[in-house]
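Appendix C: a fully annotated inverse folding record. The material below is reproduced so that readers can follow the format used throughout the book. The structure is listed first as tokens, followed by the designed sequence.
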């Protein structure tokens, strides 16, 4: 029987952990075994101009993720080894190793192998729309869901619950509005992309972890152009971004994607309740 307090977060890119960072930091503080499995190294992401030219984006973003994890109090991240697919004009249509292009059975098998090794009781991944329909998020969500169900052959070592990280409808609307059109979710219909309260299985109050979450955000300087100093003392450039992220950093919502066994209450009080 695997440890009761073990969690595997399966996410597509460095910096995707920010939307579940409060939960991961809380679980680590509570002595849970927390592992972050990153599908890619985010090499197609645009590098913030403040860093100038970066020769090896994959290496930089991997190191940024390691720093983010350290600031959240969780262990070293692991990488699946697929390539960042990009999106829109940067979509890597001819790369067979790009996450969104790869054979999903291979992605599923790679995730299932990590499940077999670590035997997590709980898995957390992207929601079915991938937040804002990023192709890598959607692909990894599908593969992780498939791996959760196909890991039943592990018997008692199979994960007990699968959660999807989502942004609740009202929070989604506020986030897009506060971002001034700079959010990747701008223009998306919240009635499609954001769940309403009745389907949310668990709401986590992340306010005690907001400072730590912004520190983790600052670790991803190539993505956001932030430093610990500009988080503490916002500049005219960074202040609007920090205000926009405030609501989504204070509250984290999770949908239930799968369960082995009964659910003791609705909504759940925590990811392990009843296990």
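Designed amino acids, in order:
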């Amino acid at each position: 029987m695997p440890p009761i307090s073990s969690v595997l977060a399966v996410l597509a890119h460095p910096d995707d952990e920010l939307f579940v960072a409060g939960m991961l930091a809380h679980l680590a503080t509570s002595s849970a075994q927390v592992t972050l499995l990153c599908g890619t190294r985010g090499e197609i992401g645009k590098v913030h101009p403040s860093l100038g030219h970066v020769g090896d984006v994959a290496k930089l973003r991997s190191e940024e993720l390691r720093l983010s994890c350290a600031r959240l109090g969780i262990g070293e991240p692991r990488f699946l080894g697929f390539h960042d697919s990009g999106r829109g004009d940067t979509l890597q249509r001819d790369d067979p190793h790009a996450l969104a292009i790869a054979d999903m059975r291979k992605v599923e098998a790679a995730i299932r192998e990590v499940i077999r090794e670590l035997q997590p009781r709980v898995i957390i991944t992207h929601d079915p729309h991938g937040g804002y329909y990023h192709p890598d998020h959607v692909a990894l969500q599908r593969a992780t869901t498939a791996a959760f169900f196909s890991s039943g052959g592990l018997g008692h070592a199979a994960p007990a619950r699968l959660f999807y990280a989502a942004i609740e409808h009202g929070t989604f609307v506020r986030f897009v509005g506060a971002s001034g059109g700079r959010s990747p979710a701008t223009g998306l219909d919240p009635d499609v992309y954001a769940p309403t309260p009745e389907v949310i299985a668990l709401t986590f109050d992340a306010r005690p972890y907001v400072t730590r979450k912004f520190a983790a955000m600052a670790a991803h300087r190539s993505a956001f152009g932030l430093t610990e100093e500009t988080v503490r003392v916002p500049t005219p450039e960074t202040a609007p971004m920090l205000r926009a992220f405030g609501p989504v950093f204070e509250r984290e919502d999770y949908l239930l994607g799968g369960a082995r066994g009964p659910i003791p209450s609705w909504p759940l009080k925590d990811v392990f309740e009843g296990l």
